[in-house]
Amino acid sequence: MSKKNLFGLTLSELETELSDLPKFRAKQIAAWIYQRGAESFDEMTDLSKNLREKLSEKYFVQTARLVTQLDSSDGLTTKFLLAFSDGAAVETVLMRHDYGNSVCISTQVGCAMGCKFCASTLKGLERDLKPAEMLGEIIFVNNFLLKQNQKVDNLVIMGTGEPLMNFDNLIKFLRLLHENYTLGMSYRKITVSTCGIVPAIKKLIAEKIPVTLSISLHAPNNKLRSAIMPINSAFSIEQVIKAGDEYAEETGRRVTYEYTLLGGVNDTEEHARQLSKILSGKSANVNLIPVNPVDERNFQRPTNNSVKKFFHFLNTHGINAVIRKEFGTEINAACGQLRNKNFSID
Predict the structure, then answer these.
(1) Of the listed 115, 118, 195, 335, which one is catalytic?
(2) Which of 70, 96, 107, 315 shows the smallest number of beta carbons within 10 Å?
């Protein structure tokens, strides 16, 4: 008889699976798995030795397997390549800010969106991640931090994949992460990124989960956006921003628009002028991201001067913009780069 992995089960599912035990045992085991970093029953010291042995005969606990770990020279960024039971691997990034530890997780193995400047989409979409696998990413990092007497404080769902194309699994993961018996993470400490899947944004509104919505815009007009983001042929800038407006109105949460600056492509003052015009009066922020060049793509990093000018133009024309602090440039921190270099996982 093959053993069953208990990781990723809800408390209710654990109670059902362990129905021959008192209910409080399920709560104990959940706390060990999700909050105390236990990777084996031997570590669960408030369970009798006999019970631990019996559990070990039928079950095991496994989050994700570490394939590769890269640490930035400044000690602020750690990038993990994590593999699951079928060998599929995703990237998860830990970023240490002065306001706490943030983790960026992936929601799919690969990506089908085809954005021209992104490494994540180079090998296409392999499969969606399950709720337990997404939870496995953040619990893996939280366990890593527990050994340093730290924890995960914020979550950014902005790694490989389009989160809203894995909608049902994403929602189940968010609700599981929010439970007190896992990490009890506030929805307000979670950011969900999308390239602009309009119907899914509306579905997210209906879920009434007040996460921060981050929309990848990357261009101020439809012609340019269609050239670098194929999704624009399905959902135009006007449609995407309207959906963003609805999200802000219904949730009371300001929307963040991500804008990757591509040298000589979308980083001129005219582009800034167009962007400020379409976002004028919106409940929104703009996150400017100088592109992290990918070997397989031909886009160049913008000059520091063009980044500063773009930033200054937006902020002097009524748009709240920030330049994203860069993390881990020298360790392939752009989404997809590490996985592409380690594509075959045994």
Answers:
(1) 335
(2) 315
